[in-house]
Protein 1
Amino acid sequence: MGLTFTEFKDKAKKVLNIDFDGYKIDRVERRTKSLMRRHDVEDFDQCLHLIKNEKEFRNAYLNHFTINTSEFFRNPDNFVFLQEEVFPKLFAENRKVRIWSAPCSNGSEPYTLAIILKELGIRSNRFKILASDLDKTILSTAKKGVYKESSIKNVSKKIRDKYFTQKDKNQYAINSEIKRMVRFEQKDLINDRFKSNWDLILSRNFFIYLTKDMKDNLIKKFTDVLNEDGYFFLGNTEYIFSPQKYGLKKVYQSFYKNE
C-alpha cells in the first residue's frame, strides 16, 4: 500500500526542511496533487522519490507550493497612504530607515517601495530594503527585474516611462538604479530566526495560507523585531483581530503601528 498524503507530508517536510503543519493542510494537498498531475506523477511514493532525488522536480515543487503572484502597486490606495503618511513620518528623523518585504515573491513589491522612495527624493543611503523569500526560482526572477505587462497594470504611464524599459510586446525591465536599491535573500519565514530593528515590515497575502496558530506565531515573530513606532503592512484581505495583544494599533486598512 502506498503512502497516504499525511505520510508523504511528514516525510517531505524533512527533505525540504519546510514546516507544512504551519500551512492550511488542504492547500498543501491541493497544490501537491496539481503538480503531480502536471508532471504525470502517479502517487505520493513517486512524488517523494522525485523530491529526494531530482533537483529539478524538487525546485518545481517548491516553486509550485510557495506564493509567487504579485504586482506593482498592488491595492494602490495602500501605497498612497504609505507615500503620503507612513514614509514622511519614518524619514522625519535623521536616521536610516530599515524596510523588510517578507515574503517578496517576484520582487514587484520591494521595487515598488524603491520607486516611491526615489519619487520622494529620498537618497538611497537613508534606507535599506531587504526582500526575503523561500523560493530560489522566484528570487532569481526578482533579481532579473523583468515583468509581464499584467504585473505593471497599476503603474502610471509617467512612472512606467521613467523606470521601465519595454523589451518586447509583453516584457518590461525595471531600470538598474531601482534594482540596486533592493537586496534579496532566501529565507524560511516559518523556521528561520529574524533579524531585528525594522521600521516597516510588509508581509502581504501570506497569512491567508497559514493556520490560525502559525499566523499567531508569525505575528509575534514580526512584531518582536519591529521598532517602536514601526509599521506592519498586510494584504487587503488579511486582518489582525485584537491587535493590542501584540502591541499594535490599526491606523489604516492594512496598516498596523507598533506602540
Note: The longest strand covers residues 226-233.
Protein 2
Amino acid sequence: MTTFRCSAILFDLDGVLVDSTRSVERQWRIWAHEQGIEGDKVTTVAHGVRAVEVIRAVAPHLDAEAEVRKLESREADDHDGVAAMPGALDLVHAVPEGYWGVVTSGTRHLATERLRLFGIPIPKVMVTADDVAKGKPDPAPYLKGAELLGMNPADCLVIEDAPAGIQSARAGGMKVIGLTSTYPAAALGEADLVIPKLQRIQVSLDGGRMLEVSVS
C-alpha cells in the first residue's frame, strides 16, 4: 500500500477518466491520410499533446487552428469504442467538490462533450488546450490547474497516462500516479507510482483539509 497526502487531485482526461484512445488514433489517421502524411508519424506524438502543436510540427504549412477545429469536431462525434474508464465515476465521486480538476490537451468543447457523454461530473476547474499558451509537456497546464484550485502545486497529485503529461506535472513540482491504459509501464517511469487501473485508488478526507490517497 502506498499513500499520498495532497490538497487536490488533477486528472488528465483521455486515457484516465475516458477511454478514447481508439477514437483519437482513428481520427488522427484519417486526418493524416487526407494530408498525405504517414499515420504513424502523427500517432506516435499525438497522445497527451495539444493538437495544435502536433499539426504545427507535422504540417507547418497548414492553418493549425482551422485544422484543430475540424479534427476535434470529428472526435466529438466519434463515439465508437469510447467509454468511461473503469472506476472513473466512483473515483471522482469520492473526491470532495473543490478538491479536484481536469487538465487536458483537448479543447474545452471536446472535453465537455466526453464528460457529459458518460455522466462524469464537469468540475469547476478544467484546464484545456484553449486555456494555455504552451501545452504538455510544458508545466503550464498543471500549474494553471493548481492556481485555479487555489492550491500549492507541490501539494497536488496528478493522475496521468501519457509521458508528456507526466513530464508536465513533474516539471510543475507535483507528485504523479501513472496509469498504464495507453502506454506500458516502462514509458511512464518518471511517475512516482505506476498502476494498471483506477480501482487501485481509494480517496478519503483526513481530519483537516488534506486528501489521503491510498493505492493498493
Note: The first helix runs from residue 21 to 35.
Protein 3
Amino acid sequence: MSQQPFQKSFGIAGVFGLLALAFFTAACARSEASPPPTPPEAIMQSIRDYGRGHQALLAPGSAEKPDQTDEAYSAHIRNILAQEDFAQLEKIARQNRMEKGRLLGGIWKINAFYNGTAWSAGGAEPKESDFQGLAATLKKWMAAYPESAAPRISLALMYMNKGWQSRGSGLSNTVSDSQWEQFADGTARAKAILLEAASFKDKDPMWYEVMQKVAQSEGWDKAQAQELFDQAITFEPGFYHYYREYANFLLPQWYGEPGELEAFAEETAKRVPEPDGSILYFHILSSLDCYCKPSIVALHTVDYAKIRQGYLNNTRLYGVTNLTANRFAFVASMLNDKAAAHDAFASVDQMEDDIWQEKTVFEQFRTWANTP
C-alpha cells in the first residue's frame, strides 16, 4: 500500500477541485493511541482469505419491487441501535446476509443497515459528542456479542465517516495538519478493526466495501485496489456497491486516468449477464454525474443506449429513487435525450447537489426537458 500523500489536480466546480490525501502516523492529544501499522502483505492476505469457502451466487431479482427507501430503513436500524436492542440487530444482519434483500432503487439492505449503525444523526452532520456516544454504544454491542462481525464493521465505518467529516470537502490547501491527522487516524482505526474482524466466523459483504473505503483514503496501489475489488466480487458478485466504490477509485480526480472508468464499465457489462450487466454499467458510469467539464466530456464517449437500458432494468426490477432519477436525468440531459430526461425528471423530488452543483443548472435542464 502506498504510504505517500496523494495529490492530483483537475478542474471541477463545487465541492470537487484539488484533492489530496495525506497519511500521518503521528498522533497528538488523543485519548487512545492510533493502531500500529500493519504490513501491506498481511493486509492483502487477509483480503484473500476473507471469502475463502464462501459460495458466491448472483442474487435473483425479487418477484416484487421493493417499496421501502434506504433512508427509512437506515432510520429504523438507527432507532433499534439507540434502544440498544443488540439481539435484534444481530438477527437483522444475519437475515440480510442470507436473503440478500434490496430496497427501493436496488440498494442492498445490508448496505443501508450499516449506514444506520455507523451514522448517528441521520441526515444531519454529527457533532464530536455524537460520534463519541455512537462509539460507546457500538462497543457495548461488541461486548455483548464478542464474536460478531456486525458491531465491528459498524465501528470501522463510523471511524471512516468521522475521519471524512474531520477532513471536510474543501480544497487540500484549506485542510489543516490537525484535520489531516484526524482523517488518517480514522482510516487507521477502521483498517485495524476490519483486520481484527477478518478471522471471525461471520462473513459480511460490507467488510469488503469498508476496506475499499480504506484503500481510497490511503491511496493504495492500483494493483492492490483491483485485487481487493476482484476478491470482493468473487465473494458477492451482485453487490453493486463494490462497483461504485471501485469506480470512484478510478475517477481521474482520484487515482485513475482518462478512459479507465469507461473501460471498467464496458468490461463489466460484457462479463456479467443481463439484466445485471447493463444495471452495473449504469451504476458505474453514473459516477461521472457531475456538472463539470471532465465528466461531461467523458459521458460523450460511453454507450448511452446501455446506460439507458441499465436504468430502465434497474427501475423495472427495483423501482426508482430520487437519486437514481437524478443520475439518469443528468446523463440524458447531457446527451440531449429530451424524452428520456423528461421521464426521469418526473421521478425527481429534489435536486441532488453533488450532481447538478447549482440550483440554476438543475432548473435549466428540468425546464428544457419539460418543454414540448
Note: Residues 241-372 form one domain.
